[in-house]
Design brief:
Structural class: alpha/beta
Largest sheet: 7 strands, mixed
CATH topology: Rossmann fold
Helix content: 25-40%
Strand content: 15-25%
Low-confidence stretches: 1-6
Distance between the termini: 48 Å
Strand order of the largest sheet: 3-2-1-4-5-7-6
Number of strands: 7
Number of domains: 1
C-alpha cells in the first residue's frame, strides 16, 4: 500500500517527542498518532534505532542557535522552509514573527490543527504566517514577494531542514538564490544536509531499501559537500556541526557506530 501523509509528514515531530529534554520541544507530542507510531516502528527496525535522537539533537541545535541570536537582537523573523509539523514558533518568545512554508496540503493541515489547539488552550498564541509552495515547481517569485511583504526588511533566520535531500543541485541553487534575495546583510541561514560519506554506509543502503519497500520512489537523495556552503557568493559559513560533534555539548553518548547512523551536517551561514 502506498505511504500517505500520515505515515511520513508526522515522523520528524514524533521523533522529537522521544526525548523532550534533549530536543527542547514539549509540544511535538501533540502530533503523535497511532498510524505514525506503527510506521516508525517499521522504520526503526529496518533502518536505524538511533534516528529519533538525531532529530532531537538537530531540533535542539537550531533552537539554541536561534534563541541566542534573538536574545542578542540579531533575529526578529524565523522563516522555516519545509516547516512540516515542527513546533518552533511555540519555543520562542511571543514577539518573534514566524513564516512557515511547505506544500499546500501540509500548510493547510498544520494551520487548521494549530488553530484548534489554540481554541483548546494547548498552545500559546504566536504570530505565524503560512505560505504554500512546492519546491519542485516554479515558486520563487511568488514566495519572494510574500516574504518581503511579511518581513518588511526585519532581520531573519532562514531554516531549511530535511528538504535538500529531496531536491537536486539545480533546484537547490535556485532556493539559495531566493534566500539571498529575501535577506539583508547580517541575516542567517540554518541548513541541514548529508555529505557524500553517507552514501557508502550500510545505514544509507537500508534507508533506500526501506523507501523502496514503502513505495516512496523518485527520490533525489542529494548530498551536499562543505564546498557548496563555503563558496556561496552571498554568504559566509560560520559553523558546522553534526550528531557526533554535539554529543559533548548536550551530554549524550551515541549508541550505534558511525556506519549505522544517518549523520546529517548542520550549517550556520551569514549573509555578507
Amino acid at each position: 500500500m502506498m505511504v500517505d501523509v500520515h505515515e511520513t509528514a508526522f515522523v520528524t515531530s514524533t521523533f522529537r517527542s522521544f526525548n523532550e529534554e534533549l530536543s527542547g520541544d514539549p509540544f511535538s507530542r501533540l502530533w503523535n498518532n497511532k498510524k505514525t507510531d506503527k510506521w516508525i516502528q517499521s522504520y526503526l527496525s529496518a533502518v536505524s534505532q538511533e534516528e529519533p535522537l538525531t532529530h532531537c539533537v538537530r531540533n535542539r541545535y537550531f533552537l539554541d542557535q536561534i534563541r541566542q541570536l534573538h536574545g542578542n537582537n540579531k533575529v526578529q523573523v524565523l522563516i522555516n522552509f519545509g516547516c512540516g509539523f515542527s513546533m518552533y514558533p511555540f519555543l520562542f518568545p511571543e514577539e518573534m514573527v514566524h513564516i512557515e512554508i511547505d506544500k499546500p496540503e501540509i500548510v493547510e493541515h498544520k494551520q487548521n490543527q494549530i488553530n484548534q489547539w489554540y481554541s483548546q488552550g494547548l498552545l500559546p498564541k504566536r504570530e505565524i504566517h503560512y505560505i504554500s509552495a512546492d519546491f519542485n515547481s516554479e515558486f520563487e517569485q511568488d514566495v519572494l514577494s510574500k516574504i518581503k511583504n511579511l518581513t518588511n526588511d526585519s532581520s531573519s533566520f532562514i531554516l531549511i531542514e530535511g528538504v535538500l535531500f529531496f531536491l537536486n543541485a539545480s533546484k537547490t541553487a535556485k532556493l539559495f538564490n531566493l534566500f539571498s534575495l529575501s535577506q539583508n546583510k547580517g541575516d542567517y541561514i540554518g541548513s541541514v544536509s548529508y555529505d557524500a560519506t553517507v552514501l557508502k554506509t550500510p545505514v544509507f543502503k537500508r534507508l533506500k531499501d526501506f523507501f523502496h519497500q514503502q513505495r516512496i520512489e523518485n527520490l533525489e537523495c542529494q548530498v551536499v559537500e562543505d564546498s557548496f556552503y563555503q563558496h556561496l557568493p552571498e554568504y559566509k559559513l560560520l559553523n558546522k556541526e553534526n550528531y557526533f560533534t554535539l554529543s559533548t555539548v548536550y551530554n549524550y553518548q551515541p549508541e550505534s557506530s558511525v556506519d549505522d547512523i544517518l549523520k546529517e551536517n548542520f550549517y550556520i551561514l551569514q549573509k555578507k
